[in-house]
Amino acid sequence: MIALSYYPGCSLASSSSFYDRSLRKVLAYYGVALSELDDWSCCGGAAAPTIHQDLTDVLAARNIALAEREGLHLLAPCSACYARSKAVSLKIATDRATRDMVNQALAPLSCTGSVEVKNVIEVFMQYVGVERIAASAAHKLGPIRAVSYYGCLLTRIMGVPSSDDTEDPTGMDVILDALGAVAVPWQYKTECCGAGSTITDRERTAELSGRIMTMAVRAGANAVVTTCPLCQLNLDLVVHLRKNAAALPVFFLTEIFELALFGAIEGGGRHLISADDIERSIGAPGGDHQ
Amino acid sequence: MIWQASPVFRIRRPAKDLRAASGKSIDIIEIKFKNKNLIMPHPSFLDEIEKYSGVTVAQCYQCYRCTNGCPVARDMDIVPHRVIAYIIKGEREKVLSSKALWTCLQCITCSVRCPNGIDIARVIETARRLSIESGLAARRDTRFFDGLMIDSVERHGRLYELGTIMRYRLSKKEFFKDAALGLDMIRRGRIGLAPHNIRDRKTLRAIIREIREGTGK
Fold first, then answer.
1. Which helix (H) or strand (E) holds B212?
2. In 3-state terms, what secondary structure has residue A54?
3. B198 contacts in chain A (CB < 8 Å)
4. B85 occurs within a structural domain
5. Could you give the CA distance from residue B174 to residue B178 in angstroms, rounded to a whole number?
6. Lowest mean pLDDT segment, chosen from A184-198, A233-247, B124-138
């Protein structure tokens, strides 16, 4: 049994709550227990840096302090949470001025940056392992031809060693392959979906997300897979943002696990772009697809 | 500080006089080098950016790699490598009033690709704060929306997505902009209707307020 602390983040607590349920269910299946940080708060995401540098550090530090109290490594399933927590945790560990500042602001909570912040792909790779993933896939995922979409914040964190290749990450592709799905190679793994301007500048976001979808279709995929709730929602919204947009269902990586392990996904109804066709195409356990 | 008056580089006249003489809005200094008088930009803006961002901007050698990788460079009035060049040249007003600062999506592609390790995204983030503070910001939507998000965190401890977006739309008088999209999201259960209040929100609120009311950058 492996125990990790985690905080779902604001997206997984509301607009992508089905991702939270899916994540817990799949990790529990593999014996990874998640203990939710008690009374976690927003990490400040992309909003805090525009307001004040100290706010960025303090908001992220609060969750890090809570995690250190638990004494467990911290899983941050949302890419924005992950990037922010990872960068600030390292800053607290290495920069005394920052450490003193956040600890003064947060007292009686305190942190030293000792906790390791991990993303979903890392957790599957390190605590479950590719071989176990491959052995556990009961349902044939042959009909799924997926492009893995990592987005900006999973591999691009300045000053922090990346968990995967910065320009051409492969972790998710390896997992998809192990689950029996076809991981389709493409060029847009780490392109920006424009989530930062969905509300303030919709046209720009529509263009960026639309381009990613078009590229996924051109690559010959029938599904997009991601681990970031902002990317998922933004790509899922493409049908509203753009007229006649190419539209493939956008899955969370844990939903592909659900399909492989259980043959069905719980949060299917939550997809704005229907995922039903893909779900129906999955074969019975052990049986042949075709 | 990379510019320092050494026995070779010596400031001959105060910058103020020269600025008046040159009729330019940028600060310049005149230095004597091997019996020649050279005029170069005064590094005050460069210092300001480097100090608040912690990034050594002056290492840029204009390879254009940041601009080449930028997904929104074509929408920018000043492309990323030019932003850096203008900072080095001391063009404070030009940089801080540019729309480009607000076109940037903070995707960090420029920063991870820079051969000199210059965190360009962070430089832009710092310039955003300076531009707001100096009253030069060309677009205010991003900062306004970010402010609403932090308001929400201040109130609840977590972001209340629906409330924040509604406040933004109401203030812009865009009452129906998200109607179709919003209905679909509600139908699919993709919108949290109620805010999440954390227990310790009073403490967190005090912390956030203190930082927001401070004057730091």
1. helix B201-213
2. helix
3. 39-41
4. yes
5. 8
6. A233-247
- The per-residue pLDDT for range B100-127, each reduced to its tens digit, is 999 999 999 999 999 999 999 999 999 9
Interchain proximity A55–B212, CB inside 8 Å: yes
Q: Is B25 exposed, middle or buried (0-12, 13-18, 19+ CB in 10 A)?
A: exposed
Write the pLDDT tens digit of every residue in A254-282.
999 999 999 999 999 999 999 999 999 98
- Do the bridges between strand A117-118 and strand A145-148 make them parallel or antiparallel, or are there none, so unpaired? unpaired
Kindly list the structural domains of chain A, giving each domain's residue range(s) and its CATH number in brackets, ordered by start.
Answer: 2-118 (1.20.1050.140), 138-280 (3.40.50.11810)
Interface test with A, best of B153, B171, B177 (most A CBs within 10 A): B153
Give the domain range for residue B68: 44-133
End-to-end CA distance of chain A: 37
Judged against a pLDDT cut of 70, whether residue B178 lies above it is answered with yes
Length of chain B in terms of residues written: 217
Residue A196's pLDDT is 85
B89 assigned to some structural domain: yes
Name the token pair of A2.
Answer: 């492996």
| DSSP category for residue B48 | H
Residues of A in contact with B129 (CB under 8 A): 50, 52-53
Tell me the CATH number at B55. 1.10.1060.10
Q: Is residue B97 domain-shared with residue B121, that is, in the same domain?
A: yes
Contact A202, A126 (CB under 8 A): no
Q: How many domains does chain B divide into?
A: 3
User: Do B48 and B127 fall within a single domain?
Assistant: yes
Interface test with B, best of A19, A50, A160 (most B CBs within 10 A): A50
pLDDT digits (tens, 9 = 90+) for A34-60: 999 999 999 998 899 989 999 999 999
Whole-complex ipTM: 0.91
